[in-house]
Amino acid sequence: IHHVESYFKVGVIAGDGIGTEITESAIQVLQKLADVSGSFVWEFTHYDWSSDKYLERGWYMPEDGLEQLKRHDAIYFGAVGSPKVPDHISLWNLILPIRKTLTQYINLRPTRILPGTSSPLKSCQIGDLDWVFVRENSEGEYAGHGGITEVAPGNAIGTELAIFSQAACERVFRFAFDTARSRPRKKLTMVTKSNAQRYGMVLWDKIFWEIAKEYPDVETDKMLVDAMTVRMTLHPKSLDTIVATNLHADILTDLAAALSGSIGIAPSSNLDPTRRNPSMFEPIHGSAPDIAGKGVANPIGALWSAAEMLRWLGAGREADELVKSIETVTEAGVRTRDLGGVATTKEVTDTVCKELENIY
Ligand code: ATP
Ligand code: MG
């Protein structure tokens, strides 16, 4: 009989498209890990908040949805987005309100090449690409301020206000410096566009260099976002920890995931470092309507996100075991189509479960 150390309450929002498939995979693996390790027990609460339900009911989340989510220790999220609903509707009715209201002001996105897989970059070997992106997750270009005004018939003007507050810049930079400091290379690259954007981005830069004074042991540099795409592609080894705005990091982490092998493997953590509210864990990819329902989605981004959830909940050892199992499975050649293999979502999931049984 195992001694159960922890009881974790998790709210689960599977969402749309492959979101439901990869969430099922994550739940199966998390349950297996609880069974074989005996270290914890899950209480999963499933929320059927999705685009299909929105079309049926007219809402994504009930009025007290955010209050319901606050009762959990963590939130696990699949993906949202449907060809039948404009993306800005689904994003602004579900994922963005959760991130903002639950003060998940950090989006942490590790990227690396998994064993047995390869980068589309010719000369890039495993280990040459090992990055952590710290994405500002509360404001910036996604602050949601602006509007569309019809100034004259046939002449509409849309404005989109990016907001950079000193407090939000300070907290994301401190988190990024702490992350960089915790890694062997102690190296932080800040991404900006202050050559062309002269207010918010200039303040962003200024605060970065102020916070940098608190971390003399961390090596720092600054990259314009356009040049950053080139550096990621041509000199991946020169980067370690990267901090960027909400929009810039959104774009760069898709590129990062593609360079590491597939968008299907990349995890993300939406963190409230104050721990006043539950944090949320989700793969970076979307609902992938083009492959939904076929059972071929790569579950690794979802499984790796689940591992990061375990780590955040304090089960670091089990998180490491899960990541190790994922790597054993990719190395053994059990890979989905996006990684050049032929395995289905279920085959990868079952093989990870078997590997966890072997470890314990
Ligand atoms: P959304 O609007 O929800 O972001 P999208 O189609 O714009 O959806 P993604 O869902 O991220 O963006 O899909 C981009 C591409 O990557 C698609 O071709 C999709 O099939 C592929 N893809 C995304 N996630 C996975 C995955 N887990 N496994 C395999 N392929 C994936
Ligand atoms: Mg997308």
Short description:
The chain is α/β, with parallel strands linked by helices and 360 residues long.
What report would you give on this structure?
The protein is α/β, with parallel strands linked by helices. Helices cover 40% and strands 24% of the residues. The chain has eleven helices and twelve strands. The protein has helices spanning 18-37, 51-57, 65-70, 87-101, 166-181, 200-212, 225-234, 246-259, 300-312, 316-331, 345-359, and strands at residues 6-15, 40-47, 74-79, 106-112, 130-136, 140-152, 155-163, 187-192, 219-224, 241-244, 267-271, 279-283. Strands 2-1-3-12-11-4-5-10-8-9 form a ten-stranded mixed beta sheet, sandwiched between helices. Strand 8, helix 6 (200-212) and strand 9 form a beta-alpha-beta unit. Helix 9 (300-312) packs antiparallel against helix 10. The chain is globular. The relative contact order is 0.17. The model has no long low-confidence stretch (mean pLDDT 96). Bound molecules: adenosine-5'-triphosphate (ATP) and magnesium ion. Adenosine-5'-triphosphate (ATP) is lined by residues 18, 22, 79, 81, 87, 263-264, 285-291, 297-298, 301, 338. Belongs to the isocitrate and isopropylmalate dehydrogenases family. It comes from Pseudovirgaria hyperparasitica. Residues 9-352 form the Isopropylmalate dehydrogenase-like domain. It is an enzyme of class 1 (oxidoreductase). This is D-malate dehydrogenase (decarboxylating).
